[in-house]
Amino acid sequence: MKIDISCPRCGDGHGVQSVPAAHAEGVSTSYGTNLTTGVGISPSGLMPIVGTTTVERTHTTALARSLSMAPALRPVGRLVALGLVLLVPALFALAVFARALQQPDEVGLLSILFAAALVIGVLTMPSVLIFCIVVGRNRFNSRILRGRRAAHAVWSSALYCHRCGMAFWPFSPAPNIPAHQAFLPEHFRWFVWHAGDYVDA
Ligand SMILES: [Zn+2]
């Protein structure tokens, strides 16, 4: 059986390219250096940190974005590191209270425990908030990763007509997807993301 790959809108096959190829043309990566400034925590107090980091930047054209197979995964590595660094003051406080607990006679055991719970609770709050964000991002990422295989089958079988700016399927890759019907990139992406079950993620 011969598959008709001509565009259903203009009837032409010359401006037609597979969606993965059209998408890849619009994505490029560059490397650069960023100046990083921040505040570090040392035993003597806060101290400024200045340094450089190598960064990888991904450039995506509007077309590539609207032909993307899935939303970008949300990074968690830096947030985890930040959450851990922000726990340092709580660890110092813990050490201070542990020492105080060894001589409880002066202020009383209960007041030390109460103060410890209060101070450590306040100091760990930023980390707790950050770890909540990490959990949310992980949930989002695993939802995307779960659906990518199904979305990929739909996405990779589609064609894109550069003359019309429309995407279409030469054959139906899934039951609810019509063949030989031209869709705007945004509409096309809805079908793909819907197949991956992350259209509303
Ligand atoms: Zn066309």
List its traits:
201 residues; alpha+beta; 3-stranded antiparallel β-sheet; two-stranded antiparallel ribbon; elongated; binds zinc ion
The small-molecule ligands in this entry are: zinc ion
Q: Would you report the number of β strands?
A: 5
What is the structural class?
Answer: alpha+beta
Question: Helical element count?
Answer: 6
Question: Overall 3D geometry?
Answer: elongated
Percent range for β-strand residues: 15-25%
Strand order of the largest sheet: 1-4-5
- The proportion of residues forming helix, as a percent range, comes to 40-55%
Spell out the helices and strands N to C. EHEEHHHHEEH
Give the rounded overall mean pLDDT.
89
What is the rounded distance between the termini? Answer: 38 Å
> Using only CA atoms, what is the Rg?
27 Å
Main β-sheet description:
3 strands, antiparallel
Low-confidence stretches: none
Textual characterization of the structure:
With 201 residues, this protein is an alpha+beta fold. It has a domain at 65-195. 47% of the residues lie in helices and 20% in strands. It has six helices and five strands. It has helices spanning 19-25, 62-66, 77-85, 88-102, 109-156, 185-195; strands at 16-18, 27-42, 45-60, 159-161, 166-168. The strands form two sheets. It has a three-stranded antiparallel β-sheet. Strands 2-3 form a two-stranded antiparallel ribbon. Strand 4 and strand 5 (166-168) form a beta hairpin. Helix 4 (88-102) runs antiparallel to helix 5 and helix 5 (109-156) crosses helix 6 (185-195). The longest helix is centred in the middle third of the chain and has 48 residues, at 109-156. It starts with 15 loop residues before the first strand and ends in a 6-residue tail after the last helix. The relative contact order is 0.17. The model has no long low-confidence stretch (mean pLDDT 89). Zinc ion (ZN) is lined by residues 7, 9-10, 12, 15, 161, 163-164.
